[in-house]
Design a protein that fits this description.
This protein is mostly helical and 104 residues long. It has helices at residues 2-10, 18-25, 31-42, 52-62, 76-87, 92-101. Helix 2 packs across helix 3. It starts with a helix and ends with a helix.
């Protein structure tokens, strides 16, 4: 997990797309492949992934979490569920939550 944290921090974490890219890197993809995958799923260029302003707008539009808590915005598990669907990946905590809550 240290590697994923390092990668997320290096890209600005939730300020940009570092957290999203690190989720893909942790699944065995190389960093450039992970960036391309996330950019494609978000409908932006790889360059946009490190643009704080562009990602702030996109995160708010997609409601996938943001640095500052905003009234009515997704946080915690809600944001993780949206990220899992958006990136078409399995996130263990999301899967457990969905199963235990009977939503699956």
């Amino acid at each position: 997990m240290a590697f994923g944290h390092e990668m997320a921090s290096g890209m600005g974490g939730v300020r940009t797309a570092g957290d999203l890219v690190s989720r893909i890197v942790s699944r065995g993809k190389k960093i450039h492949e992970a960036k391309a995958y996330v950019a494609e799923k978000l409908g932006v260029s790889v360059f946009d992934l490190s643009d704080e302003y562009r990602m702030k707008e996109l995160r708010e539009e997609l409601n996938i979490g943001h640095v500052l808590a905003r009234h009515g915005a997704a946080i915690g598990m809600e944001a993780k569920i949206r990220i899992a669907k958006l990136l078409d990946i399995n996130i263990n905590s999301v899967n457990r939550f969905m199963k235990k809550s009977g939503l699956v």
